[in-house]
Amino acid sequence: MIETSKIAEKTVLVFFAKKNENTVKIKESLDELKLLSATAGADVVKTFYQVSDSFDSRFMIGKGKVEEIAEYVEDKNVSLVIFENELSYTQLRNLEQKIKCKILDKSNLILDIFANNARTAQAKLQVELAQLEYLLPRLTRQWTHLSKQYGGIGTKGPGETQIETDRRLIKTKISVLKEKLGKIDRQRKTQALERKNHIRLSLVGYTNAGKSTLLNLLTDSNVYVEDKLFATLDTSTRALKLSNEKVKKVISRFPKKVLISDTVGFIKNLPHNLIESFKSTLSEVVESDILLHVIDASNPNFEEQMAVVRDTLDEIGAGSRKTINVFNKVDMLKDFELLSHLKEMHPDGVFISARKGLNVEKLLGKVKEELSSEYEERIIKIKKENYKLLSNIYKLAEVLDVKYLKTFTKATLRGTKDNLDLIEKLNYADNNH
């Protein structure tokens, strides 16, 4: 791995937009790109944007704008230019030749941030896989100068040796990484089966919405929290456990142990390779009983951020999961009329402050309300000698009562419809074996 420079790189941001794009949206996109750049350690000194009917196939932006940026870069000794738009290899090459400094697009920037924040072996493998898949279509001998001439943002990852190898070696490396991740995924699925008898919640949301802070509040944990984008990459699972007296009564009424998982935050235009690489981590979301969609209510763009999260959940196959909208950071809203308006617009939402512990009992009450509609009781008759099924039943449902009769065992179970249907299917298969 090439170490990212600790000295903030003087950086220019660039955004190309079609004429029909909203001016406010352009500003919002540039603001988010600026925040991403700061997270990566860049010192943003200027932003450029161009609005036109169509993009230039050679540079994305027009030649005149390229020359303007090149002049500014030389005059101000800028070392890095970051584009909001995804650039092709040809555009990257042409821009580097004209502007004469390192050029990145948003996808490459996000990959670099992920590389810096990956802590576990799984996250590091996932990031490396996404980086190599991003690099593969752009791999030519002309690309190799990037890691030799420049350090810093965008060059942390596969490293010089990977960039200098040919496509065959890159593909081999990708296959090896996928195999390693597949092994980790199989281990994770075994662990997931053991959790089937627990209620499983997952925190999802836009990056920096406060998911890890909420996890710490709900579980009395000390998961890493930092006020920056993508501080969390690794899924953390903890048991619901609150010392708060207000919520102890609520917790005691839950039918089973509750596990809560924190997940990587989403962002607009998250690179597809990254979503694919992190699907095994995000499968925790797909298998959850309820998703808690944490929303930064203090962010003016929260509606758009909610839409991004919903789209990403659809992409990973979790769009149909039962979801509670949790509007966080209400303590940062100075306009009380805005809060009233939010409650009118989202009557099923829960409004909290994870940082201050406000309204946590209402959130748990909402979770309990949603769970009670999901769980049902069922009586099942099992062959007396079918010990294997009995063992699986304890993993898949809560056993309320067991009666051992002469020819069969009668069990009264409580669980989700899906789990109870699975038990009956296994029982039917055993009885007709």
What topology does this entry show?
Elements: E1 9-18, H1 23-40, E2 42-52, H2 63-76, E3 80-83, H3 89-99, E4 102-105, H4 106-117, H5 121-135, H6 145-149, H7 159-164, H8 167-194, E5 199-205, H9 211-219, E6 236-239, H10 245-252, E7 258-262, H11 272-277, H12 279-286, E8 290-296, H13 302-315, E9 323-328, H14 336-345, E10 350-351, H15 360-374, E11 375-383, H16 387-396, E12 398-404, E13 408-416, H17 417-431
Parallel strand pairs: 1-2, 1-3, 3-4, 5-7, 5-8, 8-9, 9-10
Antiparallel strand pairs: 6-7, 11-13, 12-13
Helix pairs in contact: 1-4, 4-5, 5-8, 10-15, 16-17
How is this structure best described in words?
The protein has 433 residues and is an alpha/beta fold. It folds into three domains: 9-163, 3-Layer(aba) Sandwich (Rossmann fold), CATH 3.40.50.11060; 195-372, Rossmann fold (3-Layer(aba) Sandwich), CATH 3.40.50; 376-431, Ribosomal Protein S8, Chain: A, domain 1 (2-Layer Sandwich), CATH 3.30.1370. 47% of the residues lie in helices and 20% in strands. The chain has helices at 23-40, 63-76, 89-99, 106-117, 121-135, 145-149, 159-164, 167-194, 211-219, 245-252, 272-277, 279-286, 302-315, 336-345, 360-374, 387-396, 417-431, and strands at 9-18, 42-52, 80-83, 102-105, 199-205, 236-239, 258-262, 290-296, 323-328, 350-351, 375-383, 398-404, 408-416. A six-stranded mixed β-sheet has the order 6-7-5-8-9-10, sandwiched between helices. A four-stranded parallel β-sheet has the order 2-1-3-4, with helices on both faces. β9 (323-328), α14 (336-345) and β10 (350-351) form a beta-alpha-beta unit. The longest helix has 28 residues, at 167-194. The model is unreliable at 1-5 and 141-150 (pLDDT under 50).
